[in-house]
Design goal:
This protein is mainly α. It has one domain. 68% of the residues lie in helices and 0% in strands. The protein contains six helices and no strands. The protein is elongated.
Length: 106
């Protein structure tokens, strides 16, 4: 039986499987947030100020992902997309930089 190549590479880099799983989960969630923020209706000025913004966001999210979301997860994604589209004082950390940090400080 051959070793799992991902487990072997993680071991060579000194990264725990748990840390890597957390990183992949974070990276995929960030990718979803960026993709949702790019939706023309969401990216338009004033989307989050509309009284039915959360309802419209839920509909778009469910159409895109083909799944139902809990109220907690829906609200979390809604807030994250809203934050993503707001002005930031520093550049966000991208996936590659985060992975480098993970490798450097496991």
């Amino acid at each position: 039986m051959r070793n799992d190549p991902i487990a072997v590479l993680l071991g060579c880099l000194g990264i725990s499987a748990e840390s890597f799983t957390r990183f992949v989960s974070w990276a995929l969630a960030e990718h979803l947030i960026v993709a949702l923020a790019a939706h023309p209706a969401i990216a338009a000025d004033g989307f989050f100020n509309q009284p039915d913004a959360l309802k419209r966001f839920r509909r778009m999210l469910c159409e895109r992902t083909k799944r139902k979301w809990s109220q907690h997860d829906l609200q979390t994604l809604f807030n994250r997309v809203k934050d993503h589209l707001s002005k930031h004082h520093r550049a966000p950390v991208d996936y590659g930089e985060y992975l480098k940090l993970l490798c450097k400080f496991p």
